[in-house]
């Protein structure tokens, strides 16, 4: 599960990524691309991230006249995939698709094997994914307020599943616990697949998870119910579900931002070329429709804008993590 935003890197990261120059002839941008591009997806196959990355890869292949090969490197909340990108040659032939959290959250809660300030360059924000709080058949209440009431009357009786320690869902839960002064039992999973299966089996009361087409199908069938959402505003597909901000928990009103990244010293000319091609691909109606059907919101924009959002997100996450005392090492 991954990272509103999951929030900043540092100014030096983006400055280094966008202004660094590479003199090695192999990294020249004048004949780019001249061979296949590898896109590393930091999550397993079958999820919304994988589907969106492959859709963008198909568009890039057609637009740039070269094949785009998608490779899944899942694990550690996206850090394994981002580490592979960070260690690749900065020549534009290795890209990564991931949430911002491996840069803006993971380094604050544990050890990562890359320097988020220098080893990774943002290329373009692709989408933000609302984070839903979803009730299973085991939760007998009707609303988020009922959940808090149950947790107060029976401390620890509410089991809240997240996609792992130090994830957006974990931070969301810590913010709710801090404000409401309730005891909630967290059940950390290693990914959304098993978490969803156990939700359908009623193995816990609620789970925090990113929006996805599969989740939408189960909610429409009545097997799961959304009772709150982390998003700047209510999402169109769930107009009756309040945001955490509306419920009085603005610090828990978090979303996951996903984007494309490159190795840190990739030449600015290549970053700019990729950004232009990706914005063009994201504007295609079939790509946008695929995102919006799953509850995702397309974003786009420049590499500099993405970098600024990452810096802001990282600074905010550092504050949240320190206040909540979250550490997974």
Describe it for me?
This protein is of the alpha/beta class and 329 residues long. It has 2 domains: 11-129 and 255-324, D-Maltodextrin-Binding Protein, domain 2, CATH 3.40.190; 130-252, D-Maltodextrin-Binding Protein, domain 2 (3-Layer(aba) Sandwich), CATH 3.40.190. The protein has 12 helices and 10 strands. It has helices spanning 11-19, 48-64, 79-86, 101-104, 106-109, 144-153, 168-180, 192-200, 213-220, 268-282, 285-293, 303-324, and strands spanning 37-41, 68-72, 94-99, 120-135, 159-162, 185-188, 206-210, 225-230, 255-263, 297-298. Strands 1, 2, 3, 4, 5, 6, 7, 8, 9 and 10 form a 10-stranded mixed β-sheet that branches. Helix 7 (168-180) links the parallel strand 5 (159-162) and strand 6. Helix 2 (48-64) crosses helix 10 (268-282). The longest helix has 22 residues, at 303-324. It is globular, with a radius of gyration of 20 Å. The two termini are 19 Å apart.
Offer a concise description of the structure.
This protein is α/β, with parallel strands linked by helices and 329 residues long.
């Amino acid at each position: 599960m991954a990272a509103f935003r999951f929030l900043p890197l540092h100014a030096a990261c983006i400055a280094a990524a966008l202004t660094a120059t590479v003199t090695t002839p192999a990294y020249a941008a004048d004949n780019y691309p001249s061979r296949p591009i590898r896109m590393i997806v930091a999550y397993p196959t079958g999820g919304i991230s994988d589907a969106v990355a492959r859709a963008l890869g198909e568009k890039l292949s057609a637009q740039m006249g070269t094949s785009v090969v998608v490779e899944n490197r899942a694990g550690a909340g996206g850090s394994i995939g981002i580490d592979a990108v960070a260690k690749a040659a900065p020549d534009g032939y290795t890209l990564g698709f991931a949430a911002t959290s491996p840069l803006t959250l993971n380094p604050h809660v544990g050890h990562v094997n890359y320097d988020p300030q220098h080893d990774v360059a943002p290329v373009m924000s692709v989408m933000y994914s609302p984070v839903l709080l979803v009730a299973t058949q085991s939760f007998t209440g009707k609303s988020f307020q009922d959940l808090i009431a149950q947790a107060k009357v029976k401390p620890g009786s509410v089991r809240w599943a997240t996609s792992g320690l130090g994830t957006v869902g974990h931070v969301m839960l810590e913010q709710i616990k801090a404000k409401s002064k309730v005891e909630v039992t967290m059940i950390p999973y290693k990914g959304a697949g098993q978490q969803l299966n156990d939700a359908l089996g009623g193995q816990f009361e609620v789970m925090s998870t990113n929006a996805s087409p599969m989740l939408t199908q189960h909610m429409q069938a009545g097997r799961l119910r959304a009772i709150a959402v982390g998003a700047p505003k209510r999402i169109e597909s769930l107009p009756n579900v309040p945001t955490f901000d509306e419920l009085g928990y603005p610090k828990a009103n978090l979303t996951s931002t996903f984007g494309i990244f490159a190795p840190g010293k990739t030449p600015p000319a290549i970053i700019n070329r990729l950004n232009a091609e990706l914005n063009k691909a994201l504007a295609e109606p079939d790509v946008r429709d695929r995102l919006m059907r799953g509850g995702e919101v397309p974003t786009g924009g420049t590499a500099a804008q993405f970098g600024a959002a990452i810096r802001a997100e990282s600074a905010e996450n550092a504050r949240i993590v320190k206040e909540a005392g979250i550490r997974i090492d």
